[in-house]
């Protein structure tokens, strides 16, 4: 079984002068911890966004958790997105809402409605959200505004939010690019711990070689939209 099977993926954005991705093939096994390593503009975000159907391929195919992503619509696409959590460089929290409300928004596509007030969420979901906040070490911040937290804390809230739908895959797009070194290590370590606890498959984009080598099990290097390297970190570090 594979968690993600990408075959000869090409992507050209409407109006762009050249392709963002060319001939990308990649197979990710369940439970694997993969780093996408590349400079800004190399296609990391574009590749991640294909895995949960935020982008559709121009050529080739992306099969996530057994579903050909391009063929999914409506409810089936929402279900897939629920099984594929996503965290972003800029955290993307709703600043004026409380930390707890932000985590709860992670459950919204299963609730099926627009954003609702805290009181609208069933008690079971609130308890689940508080449990995730406890896991990321931020239970005592639950009723604080999200925008009063540090960057590292906000990213931990985003991780808690991503867990609300019990994902099988976690995608992380430059999750520590905005953080100081200490918060970066905390967040990266937390992602690995939670992945191990839950058997999550993780695909995480990074641009720092040293961090990629110390953190990932496997490195997929992208340059100008093409895969130029695909090796386990074990083999890579042995070669050096
Ligand atoms: P990153 O390099 O971290 O992926 P960018 O600053 O390149 O972030 O992109 C930020 C946002 O702008 C993304 O949503 C991306 O899809 C979009 N974007 C990037 N390049 C272009 C472009 N040439 N035209 C339109 N949108 C773009
Ligand atoms: P990375 O995440 O490695 O920084 P991206 O996937 O964001 O790379 O971008 C790859 C290429 O695609 C870049 O040239 C970028 O400008 C372009 N691009 C990204 N998003 C868009 C978009 N929405 N529209 C047009 N071009 C885009």
From TrEMBL:
Transmembrane segments: none annotated. Keywords: ATP-binding, Cell membrane, Coiled coil, Membrane, Nucleotide-binding, Translocase, Transport. GO terms for molecular function: ABC-type phosphonate transporter activity; ATP binding; ATP hydrolysis activity. It comes from the Bacteria. GO terms for cellular component: membrane. Residues 4-240 form the ABC transporter domain. This is Phosphonate ABC transporter ATP-binding protein. It comes from Microbacterium paludicola. The gene is phnC. The chain holds residues 9 to 248 of 300 of the full protein.
């Amino acid at each position: 079984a594979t968690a993600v099977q990408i075959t000869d993926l090409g992507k050209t954005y409407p109006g762009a002068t050249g392709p963002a991705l060319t001939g990308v093939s990649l197979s990710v096994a369940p439970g694997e911890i993969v780093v996408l390593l590349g400079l800004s503009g190399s296609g990391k975000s574009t590749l991640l966004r294909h895995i949960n159907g935020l982008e559709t391929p121009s050529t080739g195919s992306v099969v996530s958790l057994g579903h050909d992503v391009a063929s999914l619509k409506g409810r089936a696409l929402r279900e897939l997105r629920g099984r594929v959590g996503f965290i972003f460089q800029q955290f993307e929290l709703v600043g004026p809402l409380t930390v707890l409300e932000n985590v709860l928004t992670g459950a919204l596509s299963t609730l099926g409605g627009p954003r609702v007030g805290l009181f609208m969420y069933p008690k079971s979901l609130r308890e689940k959200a508080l449990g995730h906040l406890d896991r990321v070490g931020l239970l005592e911040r639950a009723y604080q505004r999200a925008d009063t937290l540090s960057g590292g804390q906000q990213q931990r809230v985003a991780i808690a939010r991503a867990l609300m739908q019990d994902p099988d895959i976690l995608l992380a797009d430059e999750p520590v690019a905005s953080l100081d070194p200490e918060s970066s290590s905390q967040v990266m370590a937390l992602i690995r711990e939670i992945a191990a606890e839950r058997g999550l498959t993780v695909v995480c984009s990074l641009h720092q070689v040293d961090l990629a080598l110390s953190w990932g099990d496997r490195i997929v290097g992208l340059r100008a939209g093409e895969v130029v390297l695909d090796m386990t970190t074990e083999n890579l570090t042995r070669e050096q």
